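FAQ: What does a ligand-bound record look like?

Like this one, built around dTDP-4-keto-6-deoxyglucose:
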Amino acid sequence: MDVKTYSFVPHGDDRGQLVALEEYKDFPFAVKRVYYIYDTLEGVVRGHHAHKCLKQILICVHGSCKIHLDNGHETEEVLLDKPTKGLYIENDMWREMYDFSPDAVLLVLASELYDESDYIRDYDEFKKFIASKEG
Ligand code: T46
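The answer part, i.e. the structure of the complex:
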């Protein structure tokens, strides 16, 4: 599966590190929404859905977590464990987030405003949606 990850280059100096991200330059969409996930309890699995249109960049800016990706045919697991690593998740991709370290902060840059109708929260429905798009 073709998983797109980014290695962001920090502006480091003797004060520490700073990562700056610009839409269309460092990732391929404009940001309409930002959210972050933290204080995730041990053993919790989040996500369990796909999006019809939404594109996102996930960055674990503190701690670590794993992302399970499923395009309807293949699956892949991605470890996010540094604030310079970004994961691009396009539409039509089932995702689950798990193995959060207690200190994990997962930052998400999203291409659209929140819209519940964009979610596919049932896995069988997701498989049918993918099959229908592929004709
Ligand atoms: C995704 C993964 C990576 C809002 O009101 N506005 C928002 O922008 C978001 C993202 C969520 N919410 C509300 C909806 C639910 O009542 O926050 C609650 C938790 O959302 P959800 O159960 O969808 O959270 P996750 O962690 O399962 O999924 C989230 C995003 O929803 C999703 O788009 O790709 O993170």
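Follow-up question: can I read anything off the structure? Yes, for example: Residues 123-133 form the longest helix (11 residues).
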